[in-house]
């Protein structure tokens, strides 16, 4: 399984949780807190469930509250993907 | 003369999106009814509906799109129009001084059907987290409240087509209790196979396939109701708050009453007449002081007969003009009576009674002065709006100009 990228995360965020006005998801968002990007826990829950299906991984139950930024979430996802290999 | 005042309108209807577009379509007698396109209706007994096909992109915030049913998107569009129209500024009212009461019927059926299909065909992991509330019947009240920071009293009335008036009456009670401003009325929409089947089971839907012949209230060819989507949201303020803010006044809610029908088979009179009389009494008006009636206009012959006889008994046969602009939109469930109320206010302001379209041979020509396919111009200062909801709900509301 290939690496899960920030570009893919942005696509799924848009699809599963929409896009906040005034936020540029195509900009440098890796270290922006999800909260500042306009995403609450339900938005992340919906997106994470989609990522789990797409990547055939199971993320920790508390990932939605623990991974505060896209960088932290990507690290968590890619960690699980590498365990699959 | 101290009833609450309507200071803002937001309309979304099958024949027009936005108050201006809707009102000019109504005056042209333009119908929004057609054969269903949202899904293939060919396997169903009823095929005609009033759809509102509007692209929500750019009209509803992007973050809200994945979490909203079609009807909630329509409600958000109408709420924004109403609040803009009223020049609402949250800074002008106390934090808990403004609230939302809307009418609903079943909730976000289309969203719910999609997620249930995902559950059954693929499994729980495929169900949207937003299914937790997107289908929920009070969801429009919640989403409007959150989006506009209306943190005061909130509620949802579920009395089918009577709900649009009942919600306004409930909002009026909150104003009496100290709220300054309420967003109220209703926007509804349930055009998906799941809800369609439920509504067909009521036995009240017209199975006539011609959109010009399917919904003919008070006509000899009446064959049942046609359902549409949309409705209206109104900004309602106490007379004092409206005076202080100094905005536009569409009119005053002068009287209201709701009654419940006797059990079917009891042989007792339907309770619509009592609702009319009590609403007039509260407004302090005699029947001859009402200038126009916006009928419930069911399209089910027996219910039309009840309404025609009730009006003839209270007002005298043919003594008051009666109209049913819903012949151009269909019955909008929780949104229908709110749209009639908005239409009545627009009529009072313009001095024009909107038309009733598609009617050929009237069923009760001796009882009703039914306004025909052309609008009728005359000075108007009061209107009575009637609404009945499936299951025995009757509501009547009197509005006064200015």
From TrEMBL, chain A:
Residues annotated as domain Carrier: 3-81
Entries under Pfam families matching the protein: PP-binding (PF00550)
Coiled coil: none
Residue ranges crossing the lipid bilayer per the database entry: none
Keyword terms of this UniProt record: Phosphopantetheine, Phosphoprotein
Gene3D superfamilies associated with the record: ACP-like
Name the UniProt record assigns to this protein: Acyl carrier protein
Biological classification of the source: Bacteria, Bacillati, Actinomycetota, Actinomycetes, Pseudonocardiales
Automatic annotation (TrEMBL), chain B:
Domain Ketosynthase family 3 (KS3): 1-401
Keyword entries, A-Z: Acyltransferase, Transferase
Matching CDD domains: CLF (cd00832)
Classification via Pfam families: ketoacyl-synt, Ketoacyl-synt_C
Protein family membership: Belongs to the thiolase-like superfamily. Beta-ketoacyl-ACP synthases family.
Name of this chain's protein: Ketosynthase chain-length factor
Organism: Amycolatopsis samaneae
């Amino acid at each position: 399984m290939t690496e899960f990228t920030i570009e893919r995360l942005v696509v799924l965020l848009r699809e599963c949780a929409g896009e906040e006005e005034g936020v540029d998801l195509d900009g440098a968002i890796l270290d922006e807190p999800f909260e500042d990007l306009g995403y609450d826990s339900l938005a992340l829950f919906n997106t994470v469930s989609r990522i789990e299906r797409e990547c055939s991984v199971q993320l920790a139950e508390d990932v939605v509250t623990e991974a505060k930024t896209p960088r932290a979430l990507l690290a968590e996802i890619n960690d699980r993907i590498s365990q699959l290999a | 003369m101290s009833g609450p005042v309507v200071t803002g309108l937001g309309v979304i209807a099958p024949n027009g999106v936005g108050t201006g577009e809707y009102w000019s379509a109504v005056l042209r007698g333009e119908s929004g009814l057609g054969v269903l396109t949202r899904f293939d209706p060919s396997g169903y007994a009823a095929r005609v509906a009033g759809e509102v096909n509007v692209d929500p992109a750019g009209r509803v915030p992007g973050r809200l799109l994945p979490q909203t049913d079609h009807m909630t998107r329509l409600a958000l569009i109408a709420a924004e129009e109403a609040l803009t129209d009223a020049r609402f500024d949250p800074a002008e009212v106390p934090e808990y001084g403004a609230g939302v009461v809307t009418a609903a019927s079943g909730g976000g059926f289309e969203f719910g059907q999609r997620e249930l299909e995902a559950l059954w065909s693929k499994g729980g992991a495929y169900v949207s987290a937003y299914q937790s509330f997107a289908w929920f019947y009070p969801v429009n009240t919640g989403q409007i409240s959150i989006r506009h920071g209306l943190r005061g009293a909130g509620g949802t009335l579920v009395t089918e087509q009577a709900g649009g008036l009942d919600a306004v009456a409930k909002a009026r009670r909150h104003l009496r209790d100290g709220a300054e401003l309420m967003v109220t009325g209703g926007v509804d929409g349930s055009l998906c196979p799941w809800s369609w089947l439920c509504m067909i089971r009521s036995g009240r839907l017209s199975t006539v396939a011609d959109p010009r012949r399917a919904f003919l209230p008070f006509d000899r060819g009446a064959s049942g109701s046609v359902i549409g989507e949309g409705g209206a949201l109104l900004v309602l303020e106490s007379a004092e708050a409206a005076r202080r803010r100094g905005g536009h006044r569409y009119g005053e809610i002068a009287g209201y009453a709701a009654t419940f029908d006797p059990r079917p088979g009891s042989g007792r009179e339907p309770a619509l007449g009592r609702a009319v009389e009590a609403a007039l009494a509260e407004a302090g008006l005699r029947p001859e002081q009402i200038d126009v009636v916006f009928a419930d206009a069911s399209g089910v012959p027996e219910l039309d007969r009840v309404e025609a006889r009730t009006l003839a008994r209270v007002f005298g046969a043919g003594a008051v003009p009666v109209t049913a602009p819903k012949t151009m939109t269909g019955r909008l469930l929780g949104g229908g009576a709110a749209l009639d109320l908005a239409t009545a206010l627009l009529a009072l302001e313009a001095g024009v009674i909107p038309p009733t379209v598609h009617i050929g041979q009237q069923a009760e020509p001796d009882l009703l002065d039914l306004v025909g396919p052309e609008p009728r111009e005359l000075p108007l200062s009061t209107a009575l709006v009637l609404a009945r909801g499936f299951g025995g709900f009757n509501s009547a509301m009197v509005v006064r100009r200015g």
